[in-house]
Design goal:
0% strand
Length: 186
């Protein structure tokens, strides 16, 4: 009789150990799967940030550059009038044009900053692309942890492959190695 209790106890202990192992493996797989999904969501959010931000930055820089261009054209035209002036009346007229152009330039935009704006645009573009790259790398790292877990020796036997399929790491689409073009002519 003692022998049958030992056998039953051993079987019960084995069942408890197997259940605990399965439960731990299952819960860990769920955690990794959720991390993978969250990381993919972060990649999508970073793409959306780029899609929202870049056109706004380009429009802002283009608007500032157009404003500066019109100011410079007015100042240049006023200066060119000095060369063409021949009579004292012409000099007075040109002087008033220069004064109004200079006043307009300082009132509308006191400093020429187009080059700085283009530099800031470049920095924002670079930062955005770096964020996308980091999000992709984080996603691929989470895929590695998840796939390593579900494909482990015991886990591959315990876990349902339909519930926990192997995930593919981020792979660039054909042509995505080419960065988006920024067109300042439009």
């Amino acid at each position: 009789m003692k022998r049958s209790y030992i056998i039953l106890g051993s079987i019960a202990l084995l069942v408890v150990i197997l259940f605990a192992t399965y439960r731990s493996s299952y819960n860990t797989a769920i955690s990794y799967q959720e991390t993978v999904d969250q990381m993919w969501g972060d990649v999508g959010a970073t793409y959306q940030r780029r899609a929202d931000l870049v056109p706004q930055l380009v429009a802002t820089v283009k608007g500032a550059a157009e404003n500066e261009k019109s100011i410079l054209v007015q100042v240049t035209q006023a200066r060119a009038g000095i060369v063409a002036a021949k009579t004292p009346g012409d000099f007075d007229k040109v002087g008033k044009q220069i004064n109004s152009a200079i006043t307009l330039a300082f009132e509308a935009y006191p400093q020429i900053k187009a080059t700085e704006n283009f530099g800031m645009l470049q920095a924002q573009l670079e930062g955005t692309e770096n964020r996308i790259n980091k999000a992709r790398q984080d996603y691929n790292e989470s895929i590695k942890a998840y796939n390593s877990h579900i494909r482990g020796f015991l886990n591959s036997m315990f876990l349902n492959q339909v519930t926990f399929p192997k995930k593919e790491a981020f792979a660039a689409a054909a042509g995505s190695e080419i960065a988006p073009t920024v067109d300042f002519s439009k």
